[in-house]
Design goal:
Chain lengths: ~220, ~270
């Protein structure tokens, strides 16, 4: 039903909302029209549900508006959103922050999963290399995020389990779980909060970043 | 055969150049690779097929598309592509190239537009749609984008497209803007065009339809957007849906003055 009616649905939206629109619509009307057009244009497919994506949270709504305006959020709003996101962070149930960096490298390399071409929810990739440099060996890395080469070494992490490393280790966990807790409108996906990486996968990516034996720290 | 040989030579050369090339400058390497392939762009085959389809009597009404109005009058193809999407009085819609072709296929030839719109890319009439779009685009090669913004609907669609471009959502919180609003960024080794302004001749909006070497497919702008939204972890955008057209208006108006190289050759 949904997909077959899309073409005609598109016509209906345009006709109703635009035909009578001889004068310029207000900003609020444009926002409303955008929501209506998005609702009529996108449909569920396999594991992706349109409603869930389109009706996103307050953090995304406010950051989208700020991005579009080309002006950052005011300090108070940014701090408020960061606090909201900070509250969502789940710390490792077993108290273990670092797993296996070799498994972490696999997760960092993979961009698999969570698309409408996936018929069921499987093991997702972290997409890390799409935006970050990590190990020196992998030359195919993106530059949307900062280089994370020598991430642990630069921060002086020689023993991730030591009290001296605690702050860096906790921050890194929190950043991967919900990056928006530290930067309200960061472009980085909220891997833990949005549930596309498991706790175990995050432990492994943590090891990739912080284990002194990881290629990232060579 | 000729083309195949040329390709083998080009790919061989790239492999020989090896990792030194990749480390020196990955994007230079890719640009060289594209240049080597340029005089054998397989898009030509789709252009020829599209031109033939345009002139052939087809569909339940057994009529050609030669009287199709792409915005510059019935049958005017040259220059039409660089002014799309635009508002059409007969449908009372802002339409991009493919949704307009679909309208002509329905009104002139008697095809069922809704059926074609829900046909997957690369199947049935969608194959012909891609060829037609490729040919129409090729007829504006070298011309500069100049989308009309006089009608209120065109202005409104620009504003809607802008909002959609910046809309974050999904498991990865991605918007189009996450990847396409900053200079000099890339995903892996792929350079990303900035689409919030004119990204330059033949870049971004001015490059599609394009033949993709990596998967051997001809991709229209509708398919390009469809796959962007897939990777963005967004829901499925309907073919010719208003969201895709509004985004086209946003990118096309931003690209004002950029020369079209479509159909281009892509990674």
């Amino acid at each position: 039903m949904k997909k077959s009616t899309q073409w005609t649905l598109g016509l209906a939206v345009s006709a109703v909302l635009l035909a009578g629109c001889a004068t310029a619509p207000s900003m609020a009307e444009l926002d409303q029209l955008t929501d209506q057009i998005a609702k009529a244009s996108f449909s569920d497919k396999n594991i992706i549900k349109a409603d869930k994506v389109l009706n996103t949270d307050e953090s995304n709504r406010l950051c989208s508006a700020a991005d579009m305006a080309g002006a950052p959020l005011d300090d108070a709003t940014a701090k408020r959103l960061e606090a909201v996101n900070l509250k969502t962070i789940k710390w490792p149930a077993d108290g273990k922050f670092l797993g296996d960096w070799k498994q972490g490298e696999k997760t960092a390399q993979s961009g698999a999963g969570a698309t409408w071409s996936d018929k069921k929810v499987g093991v997702n990739g972290g997409n890390c290399y799409n935006c970050h440099q990590l190990s020196k060996q992998e030359i195919s890395f993106g530059t949307i995020g900062p280089s994370l080469y020598n991430y642990g070494k630069i921060r002086g992490v020689t023993d991730p389990g030591s009290p001296a490393s605690k702050a860096v280790v906790e921050y890194t966990w929190g950043k991967i779980w919900n990056a928006r807790a530290y930067n309200a409108c960061s472009s980085m996906p909220r891997a833990g909060h949005n549930g596309f990486l498991s706790e175990e996968q995050i432990q492994n990516v943590m090891a990739l970043l912080l284990d002194p034996k990881s290629p990232v720290n060579q | 055969m000729k083309t195949t040989n040329k390709w083998a030579v080009a790919i061989g050369a790239l492999v020989l150049a090896g990792s030194a090339l990749a480390q020196k400058s990955a994007s230079d390497g890719i640009a060289e690779y594209r240049a080597m392939l340029q005089d054998g762009n397989p898009a030509e085959l789709f252009e020829a097929k599209g031109e033939d389809l345009w002139k052939t009597k087809r569909g339940p009404k057994n009529v050609s598309l030669e009287q199709c109005n792409l915005g510059k009058g019935p049958g005017v193809v040259k220059g039409a592509f660089v002014e799309l999407p635009r508002y059409f009085a007969d449908t009372q819609r802002v339409q991009d190239l493919e949704s307009r072709l679909l309208t002509c296929m329905e009104t002139l030839q008697g095809f069922n537009a809704a059926e074609i719109a829900k046909t997957p890319f690369g199947k049935g009439e969608q194959v012909n749609m891609t060829a037609l779009a490729t040919w129409v685009a090729s007829e504006s090669r070298g011309m500069r984008f100049n989308l009309p913004q006089a009608h209120q609907s065109e202005k409104t669609f620009y504003e809607v497209g802008k909002r959609l471009f910046f809309k974050r959502g999904g498991t990865h919180d991605f918007a189009c803007a996450s990847c396409h609003s900053q200079e000099g960024k890339r995903i892996r080794l792929q350079d990303l065009p900035v689409l919030t302004k004119n990204p330059g001749d033949g870049i971004g909006f001015a490059a599609w339809p394009a033949y993709r070497v990596s998967n051997g497919q001809m991709w229209s702008m509708q398919l390009r957007l469809n796959d962007c939204y897939r990777l963005q972890r967004f829901p499925y955008p309907g073919f010719g849906s208003d969201a895709t057209i509004a985004l086209g208006v946003y990118m096309g108006v931003n690209a004002k003055g950029a020369a079209s190289i479509a159909p281009a050759l892509k990674r």
